[in-house]
């Protein structure tokens, strides 16, 4: 026979390789706390519904409290031969309260139990993540507010395009993160369904009160279909999709920090606390944290594709494949939870080198659009204005001149259509200040954007 909790219909012991292969305790041990909590709610409900005598239910609830105490004091020794977190908890409960522990699993399966644990765990994780996203948004807002005077080159195709406020550029990330917060909140809404009571797949004949357990555990609603309840991993996919998009944003931010902190750009200097050195080159200060966040983004995408792949061919309802949901979800969660505060720290502590950005803007043609706009204001069709200024730029490149050095006479020598305000349009400040429309880069527009961002953080 077989000593496992399910050993009755077996005659032989489990192969050791099978024990090792099927065990999930190394991964699901972090569910211990929610597993105990969910079991206490289940036991209390069994008592309230009269499925168990009240004193037995109380013994189970109190025994589980003792299990939690041992977990907290570090004397709960997990046994891989017991497969997973659920059977380890039940086993220790048996040592604490005796044979009555065997009644805890009445009307319940590990299939609805593990789903309930994961829902509980993810709700709390998603709350922590949203708070961490808010922290990074706060760091961006504060940095943007502190550097409202700084103008930087704005890029498309990584070619100089038009000057923008550095604050405007930073706040672009605020809005990406705002959408991330929305996606995480949305995933949390789906994690808020309680599967308990679905049992193995079909529900149970015991008169359980699913609403009571759900209420006690803080769930917003219960799954209406027991088969769906034990099979559904959508909320994990939604978390992974939201986490992937969030990491993509962090990766883009980090890519810019890497670029900007290079000697070639020199727009920022990262704080020593967020950099590391070289074992051979004494002069080096490398942006390894930013690089690793960029690099670890791949793992999070991998977890999403991994779980989608696990699920795609599964027949209903529970299949052991579903146990594979946890490793990727937890790895993704840990990665995102580590990356968010590190990004906030890098943003808060980085030195902004306005002088280097200003110097970069000295030698470019990023006022060209505004010169064309000037002609348009004087009645020239935009396409014609575009051509005139394009030729002017080509002339300057050939003559080794800068746009902002051109006098009105120089401009008029090229086209008589230029008016007296034209040279005044050429400074980076003038280009920035021209864009006062909502969402634009002029200081007043960015201040308005900052006010909206601050209001969002105050309400969050
Ligand atoms: N450790 C399992 C999991 O994570 C628990 C459910 C096991 N159920 C079963 N029928 N073997 O999915």
Total strands? 6
Bound molecules: arginine
Average pLDDT works out at: 96
CATH topology of the largest domain: Fumarase C, Chain A, domain 2
Shape: elongated
Name the CATH superfamily classification of the largest domain. Fumarase/aspartase (Central domain)
- SSE topology string: HHHHHHEEHEHEHHEHHEHHHHHH
Strand content: under 5%
Largest sheet: 2 strands, antiparallel
EC number: 4.3.2.1
GO biological process, one term: L-arginine biosynthetic process via ornithine
GO molecular function, one term: argininosuccinate lyase activity
Subcellular location: Cytoplasm
List keywords for this structure.
Fumarase C, Chain A, domain 2, two-stranded antiparallel sheet, 3 domains, Fumarase C, Chain B, domain 1, elongated, two-stranded parallel ribbon, 460 residues, binds arginine, Ribonucleotide Reductase Protein R1, domain 1, mainly alpha
Task: Walk me through what this model shows.
The chain is mainly alpha-helical. The chain folds into three domains: 7-106, Fumarase C, Chain B, domain 1 (Orthogonal Bundle), CATH 1.10.275; 111-148 and 167-198 and 224-352, Fumarase/aspartase (Central domain) (Fumarase C, Chain A, domain 2, Up-down Bundle); 360-459, Fumarase/aspartase (C-terminal domain) (Ribonucleotide Reductase Protein R1, domain 1, Orthogonal Bundle). 61% of the residues lie in helices and 5% in strands. The chain has helices at 16-22, 25-28, 32-48, 54-73, 85-97, 110-146, 166-191, 210-216, 226-231, 234-260, 288-312, 325-349, 354-362, 368-377, 382-399, 408-414, 428-433, 443-459, and strands spanning 151-156, 159-165, 193-194, 221-222, 268-269, 351-352. The strands form three sheets. The chain has a two-stranded antiparallel ribbon with strand order 1-2. Strands 3-4 form a two-stranded parallel sheet. Helix 10 (234-260) packs antiparallel against helix 11 (288-312). The mean pLDDT is 96. Arginine is lined by residues 24, 28, 84, 110-111, 114, 318, 320, 322-323.
